[in-house]
Amino acid sequence: MGFHRPLYRKKHIDLGYRWPGQKKDVHLGLWYDKFCDRWTMEEDDEGLWVLEEGKKQSWMETVTVEPKDENGQMQKEVGNPSRIQEAVQRMQRLVEARSGCFIPMKTESRFVTGLGRSHPVENGFAWHPTLGTPYLPGSSVKGMVRAWANETGNASLAHRLLGPEPKAEGSEKRVGEWIFFDALPQGTVQLEMDIMTPHYGPYYANPEQNPPHDRHDPVPIPFLTVAKGQPFVFAIAPRRPGGQKEIYHRKILLKWLKEALKWFGAGAKTAVGYGRFKMDSQKLDEWKKKREQAEAERRRNRLPPIMREMVQDGYEDDAGRFMQSMNEKWLPRMEAETTPKEEQQQIAQYLIDWYQEYRSDQWKKPNPKNKKKIARIHAILCKEV
């Protein structure tokens, strides 16, 4: 662990940020990494600052729970929703422009990222530089997928798609055919404190002098985690879009990514069940609906003006509403003397097409009301333009 100089040695120094949740724009990652103020001077060793027992937990609570009030402690969610949404949307636009794809996932267990980073509480945490939220770097996602591919006997294909392993002896210097983006949260994130309790601390510190045995005292070590049920988005894109096997390779990589997140896990402590993710079906359905709506909107914008207006009146998806609109708006407009003849003909043809597609039974054997309407439409179509 690198050296961290304690801050705020004097009691009168107070920036008012002890509970940064009260400051909505505080970058909690910067706060957590740089502003630890729980240090105490050891009496028997002047000049040595240490974190007393319980101070590590209290420091972690500054990013996991809100300060106590009349209702007790409330769980804190880190990150600014609007900034997170903006960052995710920017990434989505970039990935879409490169013919890439997204996978919405949700933590199925606690997730630990950046545990090996240097920090005064001994266990670090990976904070996004600008969002102040936990995230998983794209390099870590790529490494996890590579490990899964190697485990499942697909090392040669992984070598091609992901590039050679950086530390492999004699590996050529080249990039892979696919890009892995940082895994970002899709909203504010709930953090939780967890505790590991190594029973053989002296042995780990000096195996030669301290053989492992049951007389060692267990030492609880707190560390920060992402709670279960938090939504994240993973993304990949081809480095050179339009390749011959792009669709096939995309399917392979998505399969590897899903399986790796399910069985291997992401981040630290995966051997004991941390870092498992599952597909976020609800978010996937939301994305699918939004894409369909966006595509429908683009298609409507390409339609002729009259048809675009009819679609807004339910032409394609609400027969009852469009029938009412036909009676109140389109038939009178079709027959109005102020309506240009070309427009009258166009309206009439669209109405005939609607009957044939959405009311075919009434087109073949119309009831008295529809028979009159169809006759009015035919009367316009029979006019000379």
UniProtKB/TrEMBL annotation:
The CRISPR type III-associated protein domain, residue ranges:
106-278
Which InterPro entries does the UniProt entry name for this protein?
Answer: CRISPR-assoc_prot_TM1791 (IPR010172), RAMP_III_fam (IPR005537)
Q: Which GO terms describe its biological process?
A: defense response to virus
The alphabetical list of record keywords is: Antiviral defense
Q: Does the record carry NADP as a key word?
A: no
Q: Can the keyword S-adenosyl-L-methionine be found in this entry's annotation?
A: no
Q: What is this protein called?
A: CRISPR-associated protein, Cmr6 family
Taxonomic lineage is: Bacteria, Bacillati, Bacillota, Bacilli, Bacillales
